[in-house]
Amino acid sequence: MNIEIKKRFMKSWEKHFPGSELPIACFYSDELNNVEFPNAPKPNSKGYTCIFSQIAPVKKGRARAFNMENLGCFGNFLPFGFDTEVTEEAKNYVCNVERTKKSYAHVDSMYEHRPLKQAPAKYLCV
Q1: Are 48 and 97 in contact (CB under 8 A)?
Q2: Rounded mean pLDDT for each run of 10 residues along the chain, 126 residues in total
Q3: Per the CB 3.0–4.6 Å rule, which of 54, 82, 93, 101 could disulfide with 106?
């Protein structure tokens, strides 16, 4: 990263968001470039692990990379572009396990208005 861009960003961030934590940036890449590709997460008691539970190391300055091999949750595959088919299993997970959508119709409507796109590269780097 260009050091001048970094300095300018840090100065602007502190001006507009004093005392706030820095944002977490994400990008897609076909190369890991020293970003750690963690092993598949150990499932929680329900058998799933969410990418957001993996953010703690990122906040400590350790970058991570993800794809379908190490994301442990159906709720991540579609929005991040690692799967492009809304299956009954995915709908069931989003509606009945995560409960982030009220019904299968809501899931269908969400992707009807925002069509799924394939991830542009192999990894989502965070």
Answers
A1: yes
A2: 86 96 91 84 60 83 86 79 87 87 90 87 92
A3: 101
Q: Is residue 1 in a domain?
A: no
pLDDT number for residue 20: 94
Strand partners for 66? 124
Instruction: Quote the distance between the C-alpha of residue 23 and its chain's center.
Output: 14
The range of the structural domain enclosing residue 80 comes to: 26-125
Angle ∠(83,27,121) on CA atoms, nearest 5: 45
3-state secondary structure string across the chain? CCHHHHHHHHHHHHHHCCCCCCCCCCEEECCCCCCECCCCCCCCCCCCECHHHHHHHHHCCCCEEECCCCCECHHHHCCCCCCCCCCHHHHHHHHHHCCCCCCHHHHHHHHHHCCCCCCCCCEEEC
Token pair of 84, please? 């492009």
How many structural domains does the chain have?
A: 1
